[in-house]
Write a structure and sequence with these properties.
heterodimer, A: 116 residues, mainly beta, seven-stranded mixed sheet, B: 112 residues, six-stranded mixed sheet, 12 strands, 0% helix, 54% strand, globular
């Protein structure tokens, strides 16, 4: 089956630093990847849709300059949290689909970010 | 935007018993998909079952089945013969126009 990985699985950083999270589709090419944020005991909130070779589409309320998304290849999308602050601490999950507008998504295992 | 509502924050069921998780959604679209995802303590999202809105027949996957009431915009999940491994958060989700909308989740505890 389709497998999506994320790296790192967890990260601790100091306030003011930037953190990059990678999302990889291991055995398929993903033209579209999605980034979600999940607070403790809450649901997944879509942050942005990452399209290979083009700019990401951000959801309303998500700061583009704060959460930089790059989808440079068909198997890799990155989320960079710039100038991280404690309120950015959360669980970040990516997902990927085999084709654009395909309803079946494959989720990564998530990355836990803690900003001190 | 679509909204998905799960009114049961937490539920418990005895092992081998049956439990039903509720979900309602709101959409003005005719073509959409509905899903139930399971998130165990590992936090990995696992697809449990999916339903295409244009299909009237309720989806079934082994011990998992849904009751899809399109007019009422209801999409409940029934778990039969509950197992300890079913303990997890369960999220109901709708999909349309390349976006997923998730409910707030129901924490299911299966007791031995």
């Amino acid at each position: 089956g389709a497998v999506v990985s994320q790296h790192p699985s967890w990260v601790i950083c100091k306030s003011g630093t930037s953190v990059k999270i990678e999302c990889r589709s291991l055995d398929f090419q993903a033209t579209t990847m999605f980034w979600y944020r999940q607070f403790p005991k809450q649901s997944l909130m879509l942050m942005a849709t990452s399209n290979e070779g083009s700019k990401a589409t951000y959801e309303q309320g998500v700061e583009k300059d704060k959460f930089l998304i790059n989808h440079a290849s068909l198997t890799l999308s990155t989320l960079t949290v710039t100038s991280a602050h404690p309120e950015d601490s959360s669980f970040y999950i990516c997902s990927a689909s085999l084709a654009p507008y395909q309803e079946t998504q494959y989720f990564g295992p998530g990355t836990r970010l803690l900003v001190l | 935007a679509q909204t998905v509502t799960q009114s049961q924050p937490e539920m418990s069921v005895q092992e081998a018993e049956t439990v039903t998780l509720s979900c309602t959604y709101d959409t003005s679209e005719n073509n959409y998909y509905l899903f139930w995802y399971k998130q165990p303590p590992s936090r990995q999202m696992i697809l449990v079952i999916r339903q295409e809105a244009y299909k009237q027949q309720n989806a079934t996957e082994n011990r998992f089945s849904v009751n899809f009431q399109k007019a009422a915009k209801s999409f409940s999940l029934k778990i039969s013969d509950s197992q300890l491994g079913d303990t997890a958060m369960y999220f109901c989700a709708s999909y349309n126009f390349n976006k997923f909308y998730f409910g707030s989740g129901t924490k299911l505890n299966v007791k031995p």
